[in-house]
Design a protein that fits this description.
This protein has 20 helices and 39 strands. It is an alpha+beta fold. Helix 13 packs across helix 18. The protein is elongated and about 130 Å long.
């Protein structure tokens, strides 16, 4: 939003500050100023001059020599010009020797301006320059009376004709001004109008706020006798106000209005159109005017369009509608797209006699969606999208009608048609000075807080400790919002830096974040590098991983507005991203790659979605090159050890995951709960990912790891008594798992068992084809005595006897 500072000062007349001071103060108080452009930035030494005498140039047919008075005492300078519109007696803007203009006559601006020096033109001395409006850095949009090709004649304008010779022409033309660009947040709808910005400026600089005094005007007739209004869809149109103006006199609007509109980026057209745009910028309330003679049945109906209906808008484009688009209709036809643009069939022409004025409040979301469907974007639409206050509608209508009569643009019919089914009320928000101070870390008195509230139009009930929030402040809903009002006017820069109170002061990580950090440290120490992959995937991933059609994993969440088919679902397993990254490294000939990723998978509780999915954090490890299944298993066990997981971990080969090698895979189970899996990737899956070497992966559920982690470590002194070690070589069938053997040893080793370690696995000619040998080193120790041979033998006999149930015997 752009606003000239002079327009703000019209409503805050005591405001005195530089442009930089204004920008900084407004930004600090919450109305962010992106920047500003000074109209007089490149102008210097430009005064009002009077042409006393004109003579032909002796050596140039198109040049004339002018004697120009530059002060009240009659001091004259000679200026040579080629302007075709100069005459004796005219008052014109003159830049003196050493002064500056903004640019050339063609409207091009030069950074820093153009310095004017005394010189000669075709041999005749010239001591300055008379200026066109373009050379002053402006245009005919701001000064419509300016000549398109020639000097700007001040005396042709009644406003300037009596200006003293030698006075400041820049000040006279209102160019001692600046245009400010604001970044207004969407929750501050009131600040999308000049009045809202001026109210903020008044509060920021502690100056009186003087909004325009609006009075209802109109003759003795009744608008109800001219028009009726019916709102069929009250959800999309909360209020509709209509008034009638007759005896329309189209003419240019006054220059002050044209300049303000031009500064906001709106091209002036005529008094009626300019008034609607002016009120839109002033109150942030769009308005529209219809030729009443084109309104069939003298009736307005606000309804939804019919599917397939077509309508020609003011820009001459025929548009196809659907039943979600709100339309303004008369008794027979549509005459406008609500909140966006009027129709060609009801536009104001030069022949208009009687005009219907519309000010309404439409649903912002519907206006945005309708504009998108129609491929349209208008200034009015941009305002409505923010969600306007219906209580401003009537005041804006009265302001527009007041301007019509003040500018002599027509006769306003008395009364109005106001359809307002459900009136919007303001909020009541309790305040507590102590709580606000505690939140901000300040020590501000209650009276000072109340002063801040009242500065911005919030009324306070001191007895009830309640703030009455007007409906145009849609952003003030709770005490935290009141605290923000206090903070921004007290000054963010005055609030001392303090630590927050409570547990948050310690800066403690959540348990899961601590577990994630520990796991990261372990895998990075094991040579793994972190990778990051997309949560969005393609349904084709399931085929690449050989998942059957009825797999639960295929039940993924479909994204409603995907970037493309390759990113159309939320991943339900993390392997695709890991294998894709490993494939990239393999095909770029990187050797011995180890990657890990800590990321979520998204498991829907039901499809279609009725509630948020289960987002589970997964630690995924992947590697190829130097390392095998047991290296990956070792990394997993290192994680368990670092997390203090002391329960027995078992690895079960009954894993049913088709993307893993049938004979080299295992589920990781603790206390009967599966916390992940590890294994070698199936050769067919490797082909699908174009990987030509063995790949090993492991996936752990971080949430379960968090539940199992135990950092309650107890100190044990150095053992006083020696350990006894026995080596045990066992023969068994190949389908007997090492984990089963170790479980028997642990269960029957009793309190004397200190540790066991598998140090050899043998399969070969000395054993049967279906047999294998496992060799363990088992260590025993007692805490209160030195063990004797019979103590250890008793335990070993018990272990070996239990081994018989597994078909395990001592190797001979």
């Amino acid at each position: 939003m752009n606003t000239p500072l002079s327009w703000i000062k019209a409503y805050v007349p005591e405001l005195e500050c530089t442009e930089k001071e204004y920008m900084d103060a407004m930004t600090l108080s919450g109305t962010k100023v992106e920047g500003f452009e000074k109209f007089d930035a490149d102008l210097d030494k430009i005064i009002v001059g009077k042409i006393e005498k004109i003579e032909r140039h002796p050596d140039a047919d198109k040049l004339v020599v002018c004697q120009v008075a530059i002060d009240e005492q009659g001091t004259q300078v000679q200026i040579v010009t080629g302007a075709p519109n100069v005459e004796e007696g005219q008052k014109v803007p003159v830049v003196l020797d050493g002064g500056r203009v903004a640019g050339g006559h063609d409207g091009t601006k030069t950074p820093g301006g153009i310095k004017i020096k005394k010189g000669k033109l075709r041999g005749v001395e010239s001591c300055g320059m008379m200026c066109s409006i373009e050379e002053l850095g402006s245009s005919t949009d701001f000064y419509p009376d300016a000549a398109e090709d020639g000097i700007y004649i001040l005396s042709d304008n009644p406003e300037y004709k009596d200006a003293p010779v030698g006075s400041d022409a820049i000040e006279l033309l209102g160019l001692r001004d600046a245009n400010f660009e604001y970044e207004v947040t969407s929750n501050r709808v009131d600040c999308f109008g000049v009045i809202g910005i001026a109210r903020e400026a008044a509060a920021t600089f502690r100056k009186p706020f003087c909004p325009p005094v609006v009075t209802e005007v109109g003759n003795d007739e009744k608008t109800e006798d001219y028009i009726s209004v019916d709102i069929e869809n009250t959800e999309l149109c909360s209020r509709y106000v209509a008034r009638v103006v007759k005896d329309i006199k189209l003419a240019p609007s006054p220059e002050w209005m044209q300049r303000r509109l031009a500064a906001c980026g709106i091209r002036p057209i005529n008094n009626i159109v300019d008034i609607t745009n002016y009120v839109m910028e002033e109150y942030s309330q769009p308005m529209h005017a219809y030729d009443l003679d084109t309104i069939a049945g003298r009736k307005i109906v606000v309804r939804n369009a019919k599917k397939g209906e077509t309508f020609m808008t003011l820009d001459g484009q025929e548009r196809e509608l659907d039943d979600s688009i709100l339309m303004i209709c008369d008794g027979e036809k549509a005459v406008g797209v609500a909140g966006i643009m009027g129709g060609e069939n009801s536009k104001i022409t030069d022949d208009v006699k009687t005009m219907l004025f519309e000010a309404a409040c439409f649903d912002g979301t519907n206006i945005r969606l309708s504009g998108k469907k129609l491929g349209m974007r208008t200034d009015a639409q941009a305002k409505f999208e923010k969600g306007l206050d219906p209580n401003t509608t009537m005041e804006a209508m009265n302001r527009a009608c007041q301007l019509i009569e003040e500018l002599g643009a027509g006769t306003v019919v008395g009364g109005c048609v106001d359809v307002y089914p459900v009136k919007r009320e303001g909020n009541r928000v309790p305040y507590d000075a102590a709580k606000i101070n505690a939140l901000l870390g300040t020590d501000i008195s209650e009276e000072e807080m109340i002063g801040y509230f009242e500065m911005v139009g919030l009324t306070v009930d001191r007895d009830a400790k309640m703030v009455h929030v007007p409906s145009w402040r849609q952003d003030v809903l709770r005490m935290a919002d009141l605290a923000e009002e206090v903070a921004r006017f007290y000054g963010y820069d005055k609030i001392p830096a303090t630590l927050p109170s409570g547990e948050a002061t310690a800066g403690k990580l959540s348990p899961q974040m601590e577990i994630e950090n520990i796991a990261r440290n372990v895998v990075e120490q094991s040579g793994f590098c972190e990778g990051m992959t997309y949560s969005f995937e393609s349904p084709k991933v399931f085929d690449k991983l050989l998942l059957p059609e009825d797999s639960e994993t295929r039940k993924a969440i479909v994204i409603s507005n995907p970037l493309g088919e390759d990113y159309s679902i939320m991943r339900t397993l993390s392997l695709n991203g890991m294998l894709t990254s490993l494939a990239t490294n393999y095909n770029r000939r990187n050797k011995d790659v180890r990657l890990y990723e800590m990321a979520n998978i998204y498991l829907p509780k039901s499809l279609p979605l009725t509630e948020l999915p289960d987002e589970r954090m997964q630690l995924t490890l992947g590697m190829y090159g130097d390392g095998d299944f047991f290296d990956m298993k070792g990394v997993v066990e290192a994680i368990f050890d670092k997390l203090g997981i002391r329960q027995v971990v078992t690895y079960t080969p009954e894993d049913d995951r088709p993307y893993l090698h049938p004979g080299r895979k295992a589920d990781i189970v603790i206390d009967g709960q599966t916390i992940g899996f590890l294994g070698e990737i199936h050769p067919e899956v490797l082909d699908n990912y174009d990987i030509g070497t063995k790949v090993y992966v492991a996936v752990l559920d971080v949430e379960i790891l968090t539940e199992l982690a135990n950092f309650d470590t107890k100190y044990k002194g150095v053992a006083k008594f020696p350990a006894v070690t026995r080596d045990l070589s066992l023969v068994m069938k190949k389908d007997v798992l090492a984990g089963q053997v170790e479980e028997v040893i642990r269960k029957n080793g009793g309190k004397l068992l200190e540790s066991l370690k598998l140090f050899d696995v043998y399969e070969g000619e000395q054993l049967g084809a279906d047999e294998k040998s496992l060799a363990y080193s088992i260590q025993f120790r007692a805490s209160d005595r030195t063990l004797e041979d019979k103590d250890v033998t008793t335990v070993m006999d018990k272990i070996l006897k239990k081994m018989e149930s597994l078909g395990v015997t001592i190797r001979k």
